[in-house]
Amino acid sequence: MPFSNSSLSAQVKSYLTFLPEEIRQKILE
Protein backbone atom coordinates (compact mmCIF):
# COMPACT_ATOMS: atom_id res chain seq x y z
CA MET A 1 0.00 0.00 0.00
CA PRO A 2 1.29 3.49 -0.83
CA PHE A 3 0.07 4.86 2.50
CA SER A 4 1.11 3.73 5.97
CA ASN A 5 -1.59 3.20 8.60
CA SER A 6 -0.37 6.20 10.57
CA SER A 7 -0.51 8.43 7.50
CA LEU A 8 -3.94 7.16 6.53
CA SER A 9 -5.24 7.64 10.06
CA ALA A 10 -3.94 11.21 10.10
CA GLN A 11 -5.74 11.93 6.80
CA VAL A 12 -8.98 10.42 8.11
CA LYS A 13 -8.78 12.40 11.35
CA SER A 14 -8.10 15.60 9.41
CA TYR A 15 -11.12 14.88 7.20
CA LEU A 16 -13.31 14.13 10.22
CA THR A 17 -12.58 17.58 11.66
CA PHE A 18 -14.66 19.03 8.81
CA LEU A 19 -17.69 16.91 9.69
CA PRO A 20 -20.41 17.79 12.21
CA GLU A 21 -19.90 16.32 15.69
CA GLU A 22 -22.86 13.94 15.30
CA ILE A 23 -21.50 12.41 12.12
CA ARG A 24 -18.01 12.15 13.59
CA GLN A 25 -19.33 10.26 16.62
CA LYS A 26 -21.24 7.81 14.40
CA ILE A 27 -18.12 7.09 12.36
CA LEU A 28 -15.94 6.62 15.43
CA GLU A 29 -18.38 4.29 17.19
Automatic annotation (TrEMBL):
This is GTPase. The lineage of its organism: Bacteria, Pseudomonadati, Pseudomonadota, Gammaproteobacteria, Enterobacterales.
